[in-house]
């Protein structure tokens, strides 16, 4: 288990919770001696479901798991483990359970610190109903975050987080509450990892306010309870000389990445198929039947193909799916060969030898059935996902949008007329949202856009049915008076190829030519030969370059002047804090107002270039580009 894996650490904490906060192993294969009931709310259900499957819960003695706000019958002689958020509604429902004596022993675990008024309400209610003895223990678990991957987490709170930190109409009390939610959740992440980081954040942003509050909270907590960060299985974490760096960014540091059409497998599944909490639904057509919805969990711990290919370019993934199909066909052909009859011309000895060989082969095949079934499962899953992605790419011309966006962001755009035609032509592929995303990236990446071009594109977008509110918002934002990327991106030396190559003309119509795996194999060959020119140019995103400057202490982007430096362990609370003078090996990168898989994968790719360097990426939420565009629209209508 990695010491710097947010997923492993949260799973470890959950297993400890399920064992009445005693250390235990998630890999235990036998049922526990004590059978237990697990009660959870919606938020905590999301936390658990990503890490512990039904079999894992059974291994920890959980025989029944039920939502808190559901009709439940009394179960005696079985302890009930509650895992819920400390909200007023949840506390009142727990009080109701106590009043009705649903369980003899109740262990209350709150995802974050329960406020004193709520704790007093719980105490008062149980005293009145003479049920105090039913509550065995109360714990603050500090688990109010969702671990999507071993190196990625989100809060999913506050909802529509870009609006939450950029809406000028919010009341002061609501703005304060939004900041507190983020501070509490980040505190939980650090408690779970067992680390006290150095904190850096951009000055004069919401990220700075979060950083200063988090620094104060950590300092007070360390002073009051130094052991809080050593409850994990790594007791040396507090004494480690290699403390991680926590970097807090405001989402406005780079908005283009939130709207850029991606080209990696995981990011495409998120963007085009609307993956949420590692779950995705796709319609699968089978011959002679109506399309059916198939639901898939994409878990890198349970899906070796996803683990190996999630961050790969989609053109490479299609080839890997074809290899899966090939391996499965070879295995099934071997099984089929066992049914071949013997020849009439064979002698008795030859027949006996053939039967013996087939018997041995059959034994080998039977022993490999689980592996064969797993290959079939992965083959069907990823063939269906890839086929659904190809349909979207074909129908919307995603590759063309990707091409132009890459050209804009790398300052290699040579044919502006062709780019504008993609936005303004009614016959051009792409949804109104696709065209809006391209337009906004072009708008943000250039200091000035000719008024005639602006009018033509806005008129075309309006006629196509696009919501122009995001444009209204960005016109009123100071960030768009100068180009961030023009100052920070270096031109690429690679040549500019035509975006209207034969890729889509080759792809059109192939999906409908048949069923099974043959159509996909044809698509795989087309991707391999036609999309290589559309792979992303070798570059690091702006956030990645800032992270490099901060971790390596380079000050190449004026980070020392523009980013505050905080050390929660330091007794100096003013500006003269002793500074670390060696590069950081580990970092937690957090974006306030929304993150995405493109940025995440870019950071992880960067960390892999240096042995020993590790990065965990997190955000208040991971919205799809469509969802983020809707948030811009809502703000634009208020502008």
Q: What does this molecule look like?
A:
Strand 6 (146-149) and strand 7 (152-154) form a beta hairpin. With 639 residues, the chain is an alpha/beta fold. The strands form 3 sheets. Strands 6-7-14-13-9-8-12 form a 7-stranded mixed β-sheet, sandwiched between helices. It has a 5-stranded parallel β-sheet with strand order 2-1-3-4-5. Strands 10-11 form a two-stranded antiparallel sheet. The protein has 26 helices and 14 strands. Residues 232-240, 478-515 and 526-534 have low confidence and may be disordered.
Please give the structural blueprint.
Elements: H1 6-18, E1 36-40, H2 42-49, H3 54-59, E2 62-67, E3 80-84, H4 88-99, E4 106-110, H5 116-128, E5 135-140, E6 146-149, E7 152-154, H6 161-164, H7 172-193, E8 198-202, H8 206-224, E9 245-250, H9 256-259, H10 265-273, E10 279-284, E11 292-297, H11 304-309, H12 314-336, H13 348-367, H14 369-396, H15 398-409, H16 416-424, H17 432-444, H18 451-463, H19 469-475, H20 484-488, H21 503-507, H22 518-530, H23 542-552, H24 559-562, E12 563-566, E13 586-592, H25 597-608, E14 614-619, H26 625-638
Parallel strand pairs: 1-2, 1-3, 3-4, 4-5, 7-14, 8-9, 9-13, 13-14
Antiparallel strand pairs: 6-7, 8-12, 10-11
